[in-house]
Request: fold
Amino acid sequence: MATLNAKPVRLLMHDMAAAFALQPGEAFSRDRAIQWFAEHYPNIKEGTVAAHLIRLSTNVRTRLHYSARDDGSDDLFFKIDASHFRLYEQGRDPVPITSGTPVPDEAEVSVAGPSLSDEFAFEHDLRDYLARNLQALEPGLRPYQDEGITGVEFPVGGRFIDILAVDSAGDYAVIELKVSKGYDRVVGQLLRYVNWIKQHHAEPGQQVRGIIVAKSISEDLQLACTGLPDVSLYEYKLSVEVQRVGL
Reply:
């Protein structure tokens, strides 16, 4: 077994596919890929393997957060369902998603009355804004990055963290977002992600905490987080200033 990587993980994925001797249409599971890396490259973490499966899957829009290359060198897999993949088949499968792929139209959002909305229309808008402006939450906070993989929609056991961040001390912050009101049920979701990172991704001694950001925090959520010192709550405020331009 190798202890140091001779190649980037994205290229090791090609080696894995060759080792599996996959035939056209033959599926393999995420767990099988994770097991292959555990046997051959045990220093590569489970989340990193899962993220690279997405990066190299031509039909997953999340790959755009993971620096998927537009030259075709990352067009290796086609995602079948939540946990299964097969080889990408050019000419049979849809054209790979790249940075130039148009974003699907969102459903039109109506705003009652003459005033502007004071919240983001979609959760991914809030996510993308915060990913670029994590300093607004805490000085020194930044998105996790490793070999082109970012903490935006970071995979954890078949689910996705909104943002996995690293603070100024090098510890992890798991950020869960709610575009409108945050209720107490989000606590279980957040703690599941926090403990997954602790068990599968964090180094020994590396701390992991949780952050919930919502337009408004319910009293039930505040009560549920009482006594949880590693969970912080934030409310965001969205404002738009309009100035008339003289003619």
